[in-house]
C-alpha cells in the first residue's frame, strides 16, 4: 500500500470525520423536517372563513347582529378580504329590504351569512328568507352565524346549485338578492321569471355589477319591458377606491 493510500485509508477511518458528516446530515435533515412540518402546518392552516366563525363564536354577543357584523367587517378590513357585501353596500341592501316591504325574500349566494343577517334583521316579523348556497362549508358557517344572531326562525338555507334548486322552489318572491357566481346572474334571473317565482313588483337587487362587468345582465334588465331598473354607484366591499355598484330592478309583469 502506498503512503498516500495508507494516509487516505487512515483518514477515512477517523471516527471524528465520519461522525461529523453524519451529525451534519442529521442536523440538516432535522432542519429540513422542521421546515417541512412548518410548511405542512401552514398548508393545513384553518381557512379564513373558519377563523371568522371562531372569532364570532368567541366574541359576538348572542342575538346582537351589530357585534357579529362588526367582527366580520373588522376581519375583512384588517386581516384578509372576505367576499361579503360589506358594511357600505350592506346598508343599501338593508334600505332596499325595508323600502320594498318584502315578506318573502330569496338570496342567491350566502358565503358567511353576512348579507343574510342584514336581510333578516331588516325584515318584519312575518318576513322569511330562503338562501341558496352551493358550498356546503360556507352554508354551515352561515347557519351558525345566523343562529348566533338569533335569526334562524325566519331563515331557511338550501345547499346546491342555484340553477338546479330554483325550479324546485314553490313560492313566489317579492325580493331577490343576487350575489353568487357572476356568470349565473342573468340565466338565474331568466329562470326565476320562467318559473313564475317573481311576484308583480318584486325587487331584484344585484351586487357587484360594475366590479364584475355584468354588461349582459345590465343590458337585459335595462332594456326589458318587464323591469324598471336603477343603478346605484358604490365602492367595492372593503375598498376605498375600487368602483362598483348595485342594480335594483323592479319586476312589472
Ligand atoms: Ca358581493
Describe the structure.
A 7-stranded mixed beta sheet has the order 3-2-1-4-5-7-6, sandwiched between helices. It has a domain at 85-251: Vaccinia Virus protein VP39 (Rossmann fold, 3-Layer(aba) Sandwich). The protein is 49% helix and 19% strand. The chain has helices at 3-12, 15-43, 48-59, 65-78, 86-100, 114-122, 136-148, 162-165, 185-194, 215-223, and strands at residues 104-108, 128-133, 155-159, 173-178, 198-206, 227-235, 243-251. Calcium ion is lined by residues 83, 85, 179, 207-208.
Poorly predicted runs of 5 or more residues: 1-16
What would you say the CATH architecture of the domain at 85-251 is?
3-Layer(aba) Sandwich
Estimate the helix proportion, in percent.
Answer: 40-55%
Main beta sheet: strand number and arrangement? 7 strands, mixed
Structural Rg: 28 Å
CATH topology of the domain at 85-251: Rossmann fold
Instruction: Report the top-level CATH class of the domain at 85-251.
Output: Alpha Beta
Number of strands: 7
Mean pLDDT: 89
Strand content: 15-25%
Small-molecule binders here are: calcium ion
Please name the fourth-level CATH homologous superfamily of the domain at 85-251: Vaccinia Virus protein VP39
H/E topology pattern: HHHHHEHEHEHEHEHEE
Number of helices: 10
The N- to C-terminal Cα distance equals 105 Å
SS-based class: alpha/beta
Strand order of the largest sheet: 3-2-1-4-5-7-6
Gross geometry? globular
Amino acid at each position: 500500500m502506498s503512503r498516500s493510500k495508507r494516509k487516505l485509508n487512515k483518514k477515512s477511518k477517523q471516527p471524528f470525520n465520519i461522525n461529523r458528516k453524519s451529525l451534519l446530515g442529521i442536523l440538516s435533515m432535522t432542519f429540513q423536517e422542521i421546515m417541512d412540518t412548518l410548511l405542512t402546518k401552514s398548508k393545513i392552516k384553518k381557512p379564513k372563513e373558519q377563523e371568522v366563525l371562531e372569532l364570532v363564536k368567541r366574541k359576538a354577543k348572542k342575538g346582537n347582529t351589530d357585534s357579529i357584523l362588526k367582527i366580520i367587517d373588522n376581519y375583512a378590513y384588517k386581516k384578509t378580504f372576505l367576499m361579503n357585501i360589506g358594511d357600505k353596500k350592506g346598508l343599501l341592501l338593508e334600505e332596499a329590504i325595508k323600502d320594498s316591504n318584502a315578506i318573502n325574500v330569496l338570496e342567491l349566494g350566502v358565503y358567511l351569512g353576512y348579507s343574510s343577517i342584514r336581510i333578516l334583521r331588516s325584515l318584519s316579523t312575518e318576513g322569511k328568507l330562503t338562501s341558496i348556497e352551493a358550498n356546503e362549508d360556507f352554508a354551515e358557517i352561515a347557519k351558525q352565524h345566523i343562529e348566533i344572531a338569533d335569526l334562524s326562525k325566519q331563515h331557511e338555507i338550501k345547499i346546491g346549485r342555484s340553477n338546479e334548486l330554483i325550479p324546485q322552489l314553490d313560492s313566489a318572491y317579492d325580493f331577490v338578492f343576487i350575489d353568487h357566481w357572476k356568470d349565473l346572474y342573468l340565466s338565474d334571473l331568466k329562470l326565476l321569471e320562467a318559473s313564475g317565482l317573481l311576484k308583480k313588483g318584486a325587487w331584484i337587487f344585484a351586487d357587484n355589477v360594475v366590479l364584475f362587468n355584468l354588461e349582459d345582465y345590465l343590458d337585459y334588465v335595462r332594456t326589458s319591458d318587464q323591469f324598471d331598473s336603477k343603478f346605484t354607484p358604490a365602492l367595492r366591499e372593503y375598498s376605498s377606491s375600487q368602483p362598483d355598484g348595485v342594480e335594483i330592478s323592479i319586476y312589472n309583469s
